[in-house]
From TrEMBL:
One of its GO terms (cellular component) is plasma membrane. The chain crosses the membrane at residues 25-43, 50-76, 82-110, 131-153, 187-211, 232-255, 261-282. It is found in: Membrane. The lineage of its organism: Eukaryota, Metazoa, Chordata, Craniata, Vertebrata. This is G-protein coupled receptors family 1 profile domain-containing protein. One of its GO terms (molecular function) is olfactory receptor activity. InterPro entries: GPCR_Rhodpsn (IPR000276), GPCR_Rhodpsn_7TM (IPR017452), Olfact_rcpt (IPR000725), OR51/52/56-like (IPR050402). Its main location: membrane. Keywords: G-protein coupled receptor, Membrane, Olfaction, Receptor, Sensory transduction, Transducer, Transmembrane, Transmembrane helix. It holds the Pfam family 7tm_4. CDD domains: 7tmA_OR51-like. The keyword Transmembrane applies.
Amino acid sequence: MTAVNDTQFSSAVFLLTGIHGQEDVHLWFPIPFVILVIIKTDPSLHEPMYIFLSMLAITDLGLSIVTIPTTLGIFLFNSREISLNICFAQLFFIHSLTFIESLVHLLMAFDRFIAISNPLRYASILTLQRIAKMGLVFVLRGVAVVFPLPFLLKHFQYCQANVLSHSYCLHQEVMKMACSDIRVNSIYGLFVTISTVLLDSLLILLSYVMILKTVLSIASHAECVRALSNCVSHLCAVRLLYIAGIGLSVVQRFWNSSSPLVQILMGYVCLLVPPTMNPIVYSLKSKHLRAKIIRLFTHKGV
């Protein structure tokens, strides 16, 4: 493998890796788009819960748009090369959207808590204006924490084997390709992960502890079951996102002896499984949205 030294930096490339037989991994791409169109065009779905679901669908679409070009480039055209600048841009958007998705899940946990603990004030607390402000703050946070990473990577010298384990670029792996001192990147990346993903997961856990406390105080068993069932879909999505994301980060940072195949599979699970399952899980749990989707495809079939 040709080494990438300082004089070759501007023209240096990374080589991406894919798994043969995964050409159809992005067939789920239209599902979030369908959900967005239905929620946008149906006034009865203009409620906080569905607005948060729209935010989640937008991040899923963003992740798909960012990763589709390189993934399909490998499988369809056997094009494995990616320039450093494009790689840095891709990892910036991937990590930003992942952190934004984490915050959307936090908002959805807060939404469930308000709906169960204070249903009479639900509409007055989660107004459209307040939701928009929270969404903007969370987007800015997701972008701000990742913004320094591409610039830090750009100043490194890359002189090691430049074959990446995935069909897209991730910060944890790209920085290991450098022959410079990467301690700043490693510490900052770990700090960002702890201060965002771990903090969000703890706040979500706290929200559900409070939800459980509220639900247990409800006298009717049927009401308890109904309230908890409304939270099941969100809990499933949260588990997929955090278990996969934190697991991949730990493996890439501290488990250097792990099989490349393990890292490849975990990378696909981390980036593809949550966006694939989110629309399906939420659509199945929401009666109104499920009915709209079935009606849409039934009319098209006719």
